[in-house]
Write a structure and sequence with these properties.
Helix content: 25-40%
Largest sheet: 3 strands, antiparallel
Order of helices and strands: EEEHHHEEHH
Radius of gyration: 29 Å
Number of strands: 5
Distance between the termini: 68 Å
Number of domains: 2
Oligomer: single chain
Number of helices: 5
Low-confidence stretches: none
Strand content: 5-15%
Mean pLDDT: 84
Structural class: alpha+beta
């Protein structure tokens, strides 16, 4: 087994005495990186790749949410809490889930207004926790 002091050798790529990371080809960190990335340094590789922006595909929900916000009073239907003047997407909950009923995704009758606490309870904690918030 090689000791740490044995790993410092003359690199076959650059000719410098350096810590050898590729024991088979006897290459230092930089030369091994160039070998793996077609002769480019790490800063050249990162500069070439622009970061992709995550663009969400429009589903039409936002337009439906805006219509519902204009038509209905901004109160949680479960606990009666006022939701404020600014519309936020987390105030809208689907009665029948979008994953199971994708055809009801844009149906206004399938969407209800809930505060954040009630929405979280409705989606993640079950009907019992959701009903308890009604008494609060």
């Amino acid at each position: 087994m090689l000791q740490v002091k044995d790993r410092y050798q003359i690199c076959n790529g650059c000719g410098k005495t350096a810590f050898i990371v590729n024991k088979t080809k006897i290459l230092c960190t930089n030369c091994n990186y160039k070998r793996l990335h077609n002769g480019k340094n790490s800063w050249q590789v990162s500069a070439e790749k622009p970061k992709k922006k995550l663009v969400k595909k429009a589903t039409g929900e936002l337009k439906v949410f805006e219509e519902i916000w204009q038509e209905r009073q901004p109160y949680c239907i479960n606990c009666g809490r006022w939701l404020g003047r600014e519309m936020k997407t987390h105030f809208f909950a689907h009665i029948k889930p979008k994953s199971t009923y994708p055809e009801l995704r844009l149906d206004k009758d399938n969407i209800m207004l809930l505060c954040m606490d009630c929405h979280f309870a409705y989606d993640h904690q079950g009907q019992e926790a959701y009903r308890k918030l009604r008494n609060v």
